[in-house]
């Protein structure tokens, strides 16, 4: 192992990956260094009064969301990928759509649908005398409400990555299984699921990180999570070092989970199935077919249709105001930023994963994993790490070269911020795709004299296509929705759709926020449609 | 080779976008998210030819950005919607004094920092709203009354994570001392009708739904609700009456949104011009009419809604001291179980 690492250290691949990962890890390492800070007077109070309760809430949330989003994400990916049922072609892309709605906006919308003054509740109250309290049916502003909202906003991460995997899965194994008299159920649970584990784990880790970094939804729903603790320590108690300590604990926890999952997985072999015949879809009609349709329609309605319609409904009153405020500019800003950032994230991800394939180095792997941690942290914490690095660089330029450059508050700074933030999304997508490609393919190409770049371009990239495309889509939508970093690090007078929506929503003017939210969703749907076409072609 | 050229030119393009604007401009970091502010900035630019560059973000994080940027910060003005954040910035040495003569004829002294580090722009009162049918207005006069047994399971308020509640508790500590404030908070929590959740508007809706009978909210949000496009929301807001607490003694707790001149400002003269502009009677009246906040300039006329609610006595404690009590306020709230 060691020898390979030393020999390969001067390889341009390893060096460029080291540079990229260090660049991305720097703001995260700045936060890590906070563990040595002396915490202030309130540390004991925070640790004893707040943290235990917050950890409990966070765990309940994480377990609840994992269960629901796995049930829908994995099963639907399998069904869509392998069966033909009524409405399949619609659900193929419609089930990705919830991802275009930021979770906190979905929360606001659902509260709006069910709250006391909503048209539905008003109608039922006035005509049938229904009174179920402040909210219709059940109190959505609660931890169970938050679990539902998160699950149906986030399951597409699992769905998309798992589907990209199932779509490329070889049919040979399943035919073998069938010819041995095994049922489809047996094949699914004992062959397909265990083999798809890298993909499912990748999706689930994104879902969990999203829950950990959320502050908007949990704040509105009155659910105090670990992130609440970080913010409370930082801003209410003014104890930054306590906040950073908590952030480090959070990162160590996530790092542990990621490494634990990978070690569990190492014993198993996943590669070697990508070549060979792809499966063709099995037609399911009648009652069974409609049952699948019904199962598919639930997440679509809860995660997309209802909240979207509520936002459209609100927009009727506030549309004009939005249009007069230069929305073309908002749209182009949001889109350009998202596309450029997604491109850079994907290039970096492919470079890192490919290099890790070529040179099995544990140390390189560790640096790469650290570079993905920015996704699990609350945006404000990442922003702090970034600010430190950016102004350190600016000061360095002034002191050593007398050059006054500005990075904070520029496109450049913002894209760097997204790279730090969303590396995990690109990385997880590409990695889960890569694990499925047999290493013997690389070995064959390289031993036949192909260069490493040639092998990447003509061999790995085409095989990784679906994963890269879905990763690109995820990052792009994530950037469209991103808030805390954009808010703080954007250039002067620079607005995006997410910012416009947030400004009103945070001010309790949800109706005024609605048109911008609708535009975020529409903008997010465009890549969903285009890219789904592109992935779709890989299947016969 | 081709790729290198493309790459380098892209990089240059990015660097170019980083270059600093040399035209006469003021850079503003603002924690206020209202479009009314932007309208005023534009008016200012039209009248003076000075451009106003704006970044709006969370005030806590803007303080962070100012701290990290230090003397290189491009910001000239720092605006927040919560006064304790301004005194925090002042304590961190991020602000410099605004010359007294600039603002003394526009703003009463209790709405300014004694050292001139910040000056108020608008006021919001944290009031008690109540259901007109179920509550007799005479039963309630002070914040302190809310701990009375008769309000058991009838009180609604949002989370203690909200700046507004933190400042309110701090004001109570400043008036009653730590021990009595602890009793007050735990008495209040005992009387909660449900776990704190949602925002101020939701508390008013919960009154309409019969969850509770009285709520602590900002006047400003009640104004928004009364002017909502949704008729059902207006109806909900009309069911509640408003009480300005503590009129017989120290007065109602008022929070101020305000502005400070940053220590790093390279453009003091113009920045001060903008402050003066925002405090002018016409600007103040505009802000008040758009957002239902109270103007700080005593010469500015109030919009009809605020006039109808009537004048009231404000708690005139030094707003700077609120910041000092903030950590204590949070600890009390946490220990009493006010989520």
Topology:
The complex is a heterodimer of chains A (540) and B (339).
Chain A: H1 2-8, H2 12-32, H3 43-82, E1 83-84, H4 88-94, H5 103-114, H6 119-128, H7 143-167, H8 172-179, H9 184-195, H10 197-213, H11 216-221, H12 226-236, H13 240-266, E2 282-283, H14 286-323, H15 327-358, H16 362-370, H17 379-401, H18 411-434, H19 439-447, H20 452-481, H21 484-489, H22 497-505, H23 510-536
Chain B: H1 2-17, E1 25-30, H2 35-48, E2 51-56, H3 59-69, E3 77-80, H4 83-91, E4 95-96, H5 100-103, E5 118-131, E6 155-156, H6 163-176, H7 178-191, H8 200-208, E7 214-218, H9 219-226, H10 231-238, E8 240-243, E9 254-262, H11 268-279, H12 281-291, E10 294-295, H13 304-309, H14 320-336
Parallel strand pairs in B: 1-2, 1-3, 6-7
Antiparallel strand pairs in B: 3-9, 4-9, 5-7, 5-8, 5-9, 5-10
Helix pairs in contact in B: 4-14, 6-7, 6-14, 7-14
Tell me what you see in this structure.
The complex is a heterodimer of chains A (540) and B (339). By secondary structure, chain A is an all-alpha fold. Chain A has a single domain (13-536), classed as MetI-like fold (Orthogonal Bundle). Chain A is 76% helix and 1% strand. The model of chain A has no long low-confidence stretch (mean pLDDT 83). Chain B is α/β, with parallel strands linked by helices. Chain B folds into 2 domains: 23-122 and 256-300, Periplasmic binding protein-like II (D-Maltodextrin-Binding Protein, domain 2, 3-Layer(aba) Sandwich), CATH 3.40.190.10; 124-253 and 319-336, D-Maltodextrin-Binding Protein, domain 2 (3-Layer(aba) Sandwich), CATH 3.40.190. Chain B is built from 14 helices and 10 strands. Chain B has helices at 2-17, 35-48, 59-69, 83-91, 100-103, 163-176, 178-191, 200-208, 219-226, 231-238, 268-279, 281-291, 304-309, 320-336; strands spanning 25-30, 51-56, 77-80, 95-96, 118-131, 155-156, 214-218, 240-243, 254-262, 294-295. The chains are: A mainly alpha (540), B alpha/beta (339). The interface between A and B is large, with 68 and 61 residues.
């Amino acid at each position: 192992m060691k020898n390979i690492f030393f020999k390969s250290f001067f390889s341009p691949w390893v060096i460029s990956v080291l540079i990229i990962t260090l660049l991305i890890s720097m703001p995260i390492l700045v936060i890590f260094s906070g563990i040595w800070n002396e915490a202030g007077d309130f540390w004991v109070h925070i640790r004893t009064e707040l943290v235990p309760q917050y950890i409990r809430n966070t765990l309940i949330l994480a377990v609840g969301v994992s269960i629901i989003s796995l049930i829908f994400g994995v099963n639907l990916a399998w069904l869509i990928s392998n069966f033909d049922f009524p409405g399949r072609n619609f659900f193929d892309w419609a089930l990705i759509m919830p991802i275009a709605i930021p979770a906190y906006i979905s929360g606001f919308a659902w509260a709006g649908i069910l709250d006391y003054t909503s048209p539905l509740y008003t109608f039922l109250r006035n005509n049938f005398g229904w009174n179920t309290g402040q909210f219709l049916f059940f109190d959505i502003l609660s931890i169970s409400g938050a679990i539902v909202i998160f699950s149906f906003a986030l399951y597409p991460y699992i769905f998309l990555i798992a589907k990209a995997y199932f779509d490329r899965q070889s049919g040979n194994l399943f035919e073998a299984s069938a010819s041995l008299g095994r049922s489809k159920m047996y094949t699914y649970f004992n062959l397909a699921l265990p083999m798809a584990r890298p993909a499912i784990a990748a999706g689930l880790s994104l879902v969990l990180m999203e829950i950990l970094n959320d502050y908007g939804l949990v704040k509105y729903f009155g659910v105090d999570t670990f992130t609440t603790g970080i913010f409370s320590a930082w801003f209410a108690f003014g104890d930054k070092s306590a906040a950073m300590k908590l952030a480090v604990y959070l990162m160590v926890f996530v790092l542990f989970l990621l490494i634990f999952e990978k070690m569990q997985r190492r014993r198993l072999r996943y590669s070697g199935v990508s070549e060979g015949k792809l499966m063709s879809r099995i037609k399911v009609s009648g009652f069974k077919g409609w049952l699948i349709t019904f199962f598919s329609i639930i997440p679509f309605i809860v995660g997309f249709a209802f909240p979207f319609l509520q936002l459209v409904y609100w927009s009727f009153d506030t549309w004009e105001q939005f249009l007069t405020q230069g929305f073309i500019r908002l749209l182009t800003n949001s889109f350009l930023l998202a596309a450029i950032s997604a491109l850079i994230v994907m290039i970096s991800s492919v470079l890192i994963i490919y290099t890790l394939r070529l040179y099995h180095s544990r140390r390189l792997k560790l640096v790469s994993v650290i570079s993905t941690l920015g996704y699990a942290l609350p945006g404000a914490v990442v922003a702090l790490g970034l600010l430190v690095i950016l102004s350190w660089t600016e000061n360095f330029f002034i002191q050593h070269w007398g050059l006054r450059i500005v990075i904070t508050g520029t496109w450049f700074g913002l894209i760097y911020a997204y790279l730090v933030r969303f590396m995990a999304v690109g990385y997880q997508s590409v990695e889960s795709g890569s694990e499925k490609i047999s290493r013997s393919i690389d070995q064959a190409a390289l031993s036949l004299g192909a260069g490493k770049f040639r092998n990447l371009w003509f061999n790995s990239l085409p095989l990784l296509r679906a994963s890269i495309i879905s990763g690109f889509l995820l990052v792009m939508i994530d950037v469209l929705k991103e808030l805390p970093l954009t808010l703080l690090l954007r250039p002067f007078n620079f607005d995006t759709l997410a910012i416009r929506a947030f400004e009103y929503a945070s001010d309790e003017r949800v109706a005024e926020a609605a048109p911008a939210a609708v535009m975020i969703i529409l903008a997010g749907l465009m890549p969903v449609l285009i890219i789904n076409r592109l992935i779709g072609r890989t299947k016969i | 080779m081709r790729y290198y050229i493309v790459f380098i030119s892209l990089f240059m393009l990015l660097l170019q976008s980083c270059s600093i604007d040399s035209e006469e401009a003021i850079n503003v970091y603002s924690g206020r998210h209202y479009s009314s502010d932007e309208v005023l900035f534009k008016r200012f630019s039209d009248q003076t030819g000075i451009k106003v560059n704006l970044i709006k973000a969370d005030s806590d994080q803007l303080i962070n950005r100012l701290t990290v940027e230090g003397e290189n910060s491009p910001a000239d003005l720092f605006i927040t919607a919560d006064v304790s954040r301004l005194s925090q910035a002042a304590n961190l040495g991020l602000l410099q004094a605004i010359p007294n003569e600039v603002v003394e004829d526009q703003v009463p002294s209790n709405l300014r920092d004694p050292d001139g580090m910040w000056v108020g722009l608008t006021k919001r009162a944290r009031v008690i709203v109540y259901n007109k049918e179920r509550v007799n207005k005479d039963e309630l006069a002070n914040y302190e009354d809310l701990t009375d047994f008769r309000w058991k399971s009838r009180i609604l308020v949002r989370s203690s994570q909200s700046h507004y509640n933190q400042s309110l508790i701090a004001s109570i500590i400043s008036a009653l001392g730590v021990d009595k404030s602890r009793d007050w908070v735990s008495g209040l929590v005992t009387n909660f009708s449900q776990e704190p959740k949602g925002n101020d508007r939701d508390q008013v809706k919960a009154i309409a739904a019969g969850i509770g009978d009285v709520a602590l909210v900002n006047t400003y949000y009640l104004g928004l609700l009364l002017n909502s496009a949704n008729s059902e929301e207006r109806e909900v807001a009309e069911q509640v009456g408003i009480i300005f607490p503590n009129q017989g003694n120290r007065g109602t707790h008022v929070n101020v949104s305000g502005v400070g001149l940053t220590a790093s400002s390279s453009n003091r003269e113009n920045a001060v011009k903008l402050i003066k502009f925002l405090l002018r009677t016409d600007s103040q009246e505009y802000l008040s009419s758009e957002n239902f906040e109270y103007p700080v300039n005593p010469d500015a006329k109030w919009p009809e809604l605020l006039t109808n609610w009537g004048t009231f006595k404000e708690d005139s404690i030094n707003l700077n001291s609120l910041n000092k009590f903030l950590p204590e306020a949070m600890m009390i709230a946490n220990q009493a179980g006010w989520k």
